[in-house]
Design brief:
Number of helices: 8
Helix content: over 70%
Largest sheet: none
Structural class: mainly alpha
Strand content: under 5%
Number of strands: 0
CATH topology: Growth Hormone, Chain: A
């Protein structure tokens, strides 16, 4: 049971971390991409649009073909988009990458909650959902600090490399911990 809970936590973490980790690098990202910060602030909405679009389909699709393939696909999409995010050269590409990251994170997010619904009774699910909510609420505080610490030694693409690693770890967790 613990493996499903830990896997769900990892899948949920992509969503808030990818929103807040890169924010400290936004001035440098804008400068390097030849855009203004205000032009790139829409990246938050674009990311959420990718998530929202995916959530409509990912939940139903995971009911039909299973949680594991959707979680793995979401983690792979997130990982590849994050890797591309570290190499973008203009603001349009940056926004496209953020949308695709949202698609991957949305798939993982939906599956995480579906797993909890599948595996836990009402009493345990309420406790676990409280912990998940706590993680989701604390990440907007922790992620920018982590992002700042990363940027003390590395340029902004390293933020997206960090997200790439997170997506790769989620793919591994989904591959190993979710039933085939």
């Amino acid at each position: 049971m613990t493996r499903f809970i830990l896997c769900s936590f990892a899948l949920v973490l992509l969503y808030p971390t990818a929103i807040d980790l890169y924010l400290v690098g936004l001035p440098q990202i804008a400068r390097d991409l030849g855009a203004s910060e205000s032009q790139l602030h829409i990246a938050f909405s674009v990311y959420l649009a990718g998530m929202a679009t995916t959530m409509v389909f990912a939940g139903k699709l995971s009911d039909v073909i299973g949680r594991r393939p959707i979680a793995i696909a979401g983690a792979i999409i997130f990982t590849l988009a994050s890797l591309l995010g570290s190499t973008v050269e203009n603001s349009q590409s940056f926004l496209i990458v953020r949308f695709i990251q949202g698609i991957g994170a949305g798939s993982c997010y939906v599956v995480a909650f579906a797993i909890l619904r599948d595996k836990l009774d009402d009493k345990h699910r309420a406790k676990v959902l409280s912990m998940v909510n706590g993680i989701t609420c604390i990440m907007p505080v922790i992620a920018p600090v982590i992002g700042h610490l990363i940027m003390l030694s590395f340029p902004w693409p390293s933020l997206f490399i960090t997200m790439t690693a997170m997506g790769g770890m989620d793919r591994n967790k989904a591959t190993h911990y979710l039933n085939k």
